[in-house]
Amino acid sequence: MGRHYLKAAILWILLTAIGEFLALRIPLFPTAAAEEARIIDSSFILLMILGIPVFTFVLAVLIYTLSTFRSREEAPEDGPPVHGRPAVALLWITITAGLAIYVIFNPGLKGLAELRANQRADLVVRVEGSRWFWKVTYPEYGITAREIVLPVHRRVRFEVTSVDVVHSFWVPAFRVKIDAVPGIVTRVFVTPTQTGTFQEDYHFRLQCAELCGLGHSMMTAPVTVLEQGEFDAWVGKAKP
Ligand SMILES: [Cu+2]
Question: What pTM does this model have?
């Protein structure tokens, strides 16, 4: 029996090494253009690093069992009954429950605090969803637009709502997402770290991420991040 455990364990370690190597080497993420994107991407990487050994453990046991204990008889009869091992079950539950509790705190609560604890903002942008377009307003400047234009390196608070059904505010390059719910205002913070436009990179777009009807997939608005001077010039032109 010990020999089987050893072989399965070697297979597990091998699969884990391959999995971790691929996860860390393959570029998985699109353009990350905000401080929040860094926090969210690092959470994603941590969850992957922790999840891969669990996944490969199941895979290793499955592969080893299927290939080693397969019957080679023409008409196999049922094998002897298998009895559980409480110690193994307890170990499995303890380790996976421990992992689950750990990720509630890190990256869960820790990440949420990093994204939301600081309510300070340099700029407020209101975004209102309706079937099937976004209305963007800048209360400070009295600007209404069908696009989002932001200055780089400034913390922006988006105040999001909807006039009809539930939509969802999502900008892939910033990673943040928040529901747009009729009757309430939800908030999300973004600090862009690089300039960019939708024309150069389609991850710079506001995309509805909650199925809201026929026009849902087209419910987008371009996002532009400018240097402060260029942003001020845009404000000057867009002001009524
Ligand atoms: Cu939608």
Answer: 0.86
Please tell me the distance between residue 207's alpha carbon and the centre of ligand 1 in angstroms: 8
Sign of the alpha-carbon dihedral angle for 125, 130, 134, 137 = negative
* Cβ-contact 103, 135 below 8 angstroms: no
Tell me, in angstroms, the distance from the centre of ligand 1 to residue 132's CA: 7
**Which segments of 83-185 are extended strands (E)?**
123-130, 133-138, 143-145, 148-151, 156-162, 167-170, 177-180
92 and 167 part of one domain: no
| Helical ranges in 69-172 per DSSP H | 86-103, 110-116
Determine the distance separating the centroid of ligand 1 and the alpha carbon of 195, expressed in angstroms: 26
For residue 211, give its domain range: 123-238
Token output for 187: 């908030």
Is residue 59 located within the same domain as residue 139? no
pLDDT in tens, 119-152: 899 999 999 999 999 999 999 999 999 999 999 9
In the chain, the number of structural domains is 2
Distance in Å, CA 177 to ligand 1 centroid: 13
Span from the CA of 182 to the centroid of ligand 1 (angstroms) = 13
Residue 163 Cα to ligand 1 middle (Å): 13
